[in-house]
Design a protein that fits this description.
The chain is α/β, with parallel strands linked by helices. Helices cover about 40% and strands about 15% of the residues. A hairpin with a 7-residue loop joins strand 7 and strand 8.
Length: about 250
């Protein structure tokens, strides 16, 4: 059986609490600029906010948390800032991986690894390998990630199967293509949060976000905490989710 013949995870039921929350962690630089601090300090405080949100996700019963940590478009930033970001990633994995593992967090990485520095690739692999069998919370880290590339790569893999005569093009459905994305076994996000007041997806989970509820909050990422997460979930719970149908699934 070809990989794409396995159906994707179905649409989530809305019980008022999202099973899968995805976050675009935006505003580290603006947070720092507003305080007269270097951008690196904003990124450092952003890592502290991530630690708080991970603890909150545990406490709130979230099963999947996806974070947009480094976009494939972020390579256009100054080399010094990229170096700071990668340094924070190195320290986060080295300092926090053991506690994530003991807390039952399973780390999954999505995004392109080709071209990354060898030690970064090794750290990402170590995080996945160590935590592979944990089940309390799945942390999906979108690193060097772009949704258009993810979708294009899935299409390329299907095209190869067609060219090799392994698949009839007429059998390719949306579910088939979806099963070739980076983590097809993980349900689509119920809720996508973006901090810092911007109201766009910025090439993040565009396929998976087809029926996600979007909540945009004005605060910058370093100030995001459990209360802010609870506020976004409360907003989510008021939404009517129809999934294209006439009968609403409500969060009440």
């Amino acid at each position: 059986m070809l990989k794409g013949d396995t159906p994707q995870t179905g649409e989530p039921e809305n019980t008022g609490s999202p099973r899968h929350v995805a976050i675009i962690m935006d505003g580290n630089g603006r947070w720092a600029a507003a305080r007269g601090l270097p951008r690196a300090e904003g990124h450092r405080r952003g890592v502290e906010a991530l630690r708080k949100v991970l603890r909150a996700a545990h406490e709130l019963g979230i099963s999947y948390l996806t974070i947009f940590s480094f976009s494939s478009e972020n390579w256009s930033r100054p080399a010094s800032e990229i170096g700071d970001l990668f340094g924070l990633l190195r320290r986060f994995i080295r300092n926090d991986l053991a506690s994530l593992h003991s807390d039952g967090v399973c780390v999954r990485i999505i995004g392109e690894r080709e071209g990354l520095e060898p030690d970064i690739k090794a750290l990402l692999k170590e995080a996945e390998d160590l935590t592979r069998h944990n089940t309390r919370l799945t942390l999906v880290v979108a690193f060097n990630y772009g949704s258009r590339h993810e979708i294009a790569h899935a299409a390329q893999r299907l095209a190869v199967e067609v060219a090799e005569g392994k698949r009839d093009p007429a059998t390719i459905t949306a579910e088939t293509l979806g099963s070739y994305l980076d983590v097809p076994d993980i349900p689509d996000p119920d809720l996508i949060i973006r901090t810092s007041g911007e109201q766009r997806l910025s090439n993040f989970l565009m396929w998976q976000a087809a029926y996600s509820e979007l909540v945009f909050v004005p605060i910058h990422w370093p100030d995001f905490d459990k209360a802010a997460l609870e506020g976004a979930i409360a907003e989510y719970a008021t939404r009517e989710r129809r999934f294209g149908g006439l009968i609403a699934k409500t969060g009440s």
